[in-house]
Specification:
228 residues; mainly alpha; 6 helices; 2 strands; 5% strand; flat
């Protein structure tokens, strides 16, 4: 999985290096809310996003290594199993995010290439809609794996209430996963039928609502555990 994450991340850099060879020196770099191009810049600015993708993969790689070492040094079977479970979820998260951002970079490159070579005044691809749909897909993927995490301070619902014991962790992340999947589905549906500006706002609303609902539920479970 780590190799796949790095392969995908490097692909975004390689494809950028290939495409910029066929671009004019100046390409669209920013758009207003209506999709009108409001800033042109150097074609080499397209390398900024691939570098960020590589840095993000490095971030996940270091966390994965940390939990792999924790699994190796674990003295108890439960601690070993928990660390390995979290390693698996982190690998899936890293690969999913690398894939999402690489697709985004490919769409950005295509749009810039077409617009620069045709002298377009408006975006040829609605990047806002594409980003929202991809975000919805990521929310669904991560929501499916959240309930499989074991108690830790890196992934999952990580508040003091959920970290109280194994029961609060399991129930909090099961609810949080369902809330995240719902937010992802609603984001995709909303994006299909609304302009990108509204879709972005609703994406934030869905995420905030899912987070708030999860916190309320987690506190409720925590209080029940204290009563026991």
């Amino acid at each position: 999985m780590k190799k796949a994450m790095w392969a995908i991340s490097l692909f975004s850099f390689i494809i950028t290096a290939a495409v910029v060879q066929f671009m004019p020196d100046s390409v669209p770099m920013h758009y207003d809310i209506a999709g009108k191009i409001d800033r042109w810049g150097s074609k080499y600015e397209n390398f900024i996003f691939p570098v960020l993708i590589l840095l993000m993969s490095l971030f996940w790689h270091l966390f994965i290594l940390h939990f792999e070492k924790r699994a190796e040094s674990a003295s108890a079977d439960k601690e070993h199993a928990e660390a390995l479970s979290n390693v698996k979820v982190m690998k899936i998260t890293g690969v999913s995010m690398a894939a999402m951002f690489t697709v985004m970079q490919s769409l950005i490159l295509y749009g810039s290439y077409v617009e620069a070579n045709t002298g377009a005044a408006y975006a040829s691809i609605d990047i806002g809609k594409a980003a929202c749909i991809l975000s919805g897909v990521i929310l669904i993927v991560l929501g499916n794996f959240m309930p499989k995490t074991k108690k830790n301070r890196v992934v999952g619902v990580r508040v003091s209430w959920s970290l109280h014991n194994d029961t609060t962790w399991m129930k909090s992340n099961r609810f949080g996963g369902a809330a995240m999947i719902t937010a992802g589905l609603m984001t995709i549906i909303t994006t299909i039928f609304t302009p990108s500006g509204i879709a972005v706002v609703m994406l934030l609303v869905y995420i905030l609502t899912a987070s708030a609902a999860t916190l309320v539920y987690t506190h409720k479970i925590y209080k029940k555990e204290l009563e026991k």
